[in-house]
Amino acid sequence: MSQSRTGPGLVVVDKPAGMTSHDVVGRCRRSFATRRVGHAGTLDPMATGVLVIGIDRATKILGLLTATSKSYAATIRLGQTTSTDDAEGELLQSVSAAHVTDEQITATISKFRGDITQVPSTVSAIKIGGRRAYQLARQGHSVELEARPVRIDRFDVTARRTVDGVVDLDVEVDCSSGTYIRALARDLGDALRVGGHLTSLRRTRVGRFGLEQACSLDELAQRPRLSLSLDEACLLMYPRRDLTAEEAEAAANGRPLAPAGIDGTYAATDFDGRVIALLRDDGPRTKSLVVIRPATL
C-alpha cells in the first residue's frame, strides 16, 4: 500500500462520535489503500465534525493546517463539574445554576472574547516530560499545565435550556489553534460560580475547510475520493506566485528565489499551474516551507 488510489490530496471527514482521530486515519488507510495518511488537529472521541485528512504527499502540509483557526458548535452545562471538563469524566460537583440570568451569562462570556490566557484541561494531549497529560492524569499523577495565550474571535450563545437546576447553553465559537473548548466550558462555569463542563462538541470548520465539504467514513469506504487535490488545497489556502521554468527548477530543488513581495506563505506554481513549493519571503531571498514537487519525484 504505497501509492494511493487517488493521488495526493486532502479529505475532509465528518468524524463520528466514539472514534479517535487515529481510528479515522486507520479507516482512511484502508479506503485509499496507502499508509501515507495523517490528520490535522486532533478531535476527542466524544467530538464530531471536521477532521482534515492528508493522503500521500499532502501529509506534508498538515502541520501548516494545524495552526489555522477553527470553529465549533458546542453545548456547555452549567451547574456540574467533572474530572475531565467534559461529559466523559466523573461528576465532582453539582449545584443549581437556575438562578444564573441571561444577562450574567452574556456579561461573563464577553470577558472570554479576544486575546486571553487559558489553562488546558488535565486530560489534554499536551506532552509533559515526553508523556501525554491525559495519560498521567488517568494514572493518578498530579498534572499542572501552564496557561497559554489563545484568541477567541466569537463566543455566542444560540440557545438556553434549564432542566432540574442545570443550564445547558448551545454556543458557537471561532478561535485560534490551541484553544480547548472543554477549558472554555470549565472557566465559564467557574466565573459564574456554579461550575461547568462540555456535553457535546462539533467542529464545523478548520481554516477554509468546513462541514459543507465533509463526507462520512462509510461514503469513503464505498467510493474513495479526495475533497481537494494537493494543488487545489494549496491554491485555496494561499496566494499564488507564478514561476519561470528556471525558478520552478530551483524551487523543486529547495533553492531560494528572489522575494515576491507577498505577505505570509504563498504557493509557487510552474507554467502548467502545478504547485512546486510553499514559500515565504525572508529578507532578500525566499524560505522554502514545503517542497510539494521535489526534483526527485
TrEMBL record:
Residues 182-222 form the tRNA pseudouridylate synthase B C-terminal domain. Pfam families: TruB_C, TruB_C_2, TruB_N. Residues 238-293 form the tRNA pseudouridine synthase II TruB subfamily 2 C-terminal domain. InterPro entries: PsdUridine_synth_cat_dom_sf (IPR020103), PsdUridine_synth_N (IPR002501), PUA-like_sf (IPR015947), PUA_sf (IPR036974), tRNA_psdUridine_synth_fam2_C (IPR015225), tRNA_psdUridine_synth_TruB (IPR014780), TruB_C (IPR032819). Residues 29-181 form the Pseudouridine synthase II N-terminal domain. GO terms for biological process: mRNA pseudouridine synthesis; tRNA pseudouridine synthesis. One of its GO terms (molecular function) is RNA binding. The keyword Lyase does not apply. It is an enzyme of class 5 (isomerase). The keyword tRNA processing applies. Keywords: Isomerase, tRNA processing. Its EC number is 5.4.99.25. The active site is at 44 (nucleophile). It catalyses: uridine(55) in tRNA = pseudouridine(55) in tRNA. Coiled coil: none annotated. HAMAP family: TruB_bact. Responsible for synthesis of pseudouridine from uracil-55 in the psi GC loop of transfer RNAs. Belongs to the pseudouridine synthase TruB family. Type 1 subfamily. NCBIfam families: TruB (TIGR00431). This is tRNA pseudouridine synthase B. It comes from Mycobacterium innocens. The lineage of its organism: Bacteria, Bacillati, Actinomycetota, Actinomycetes, Mycobacteriales.
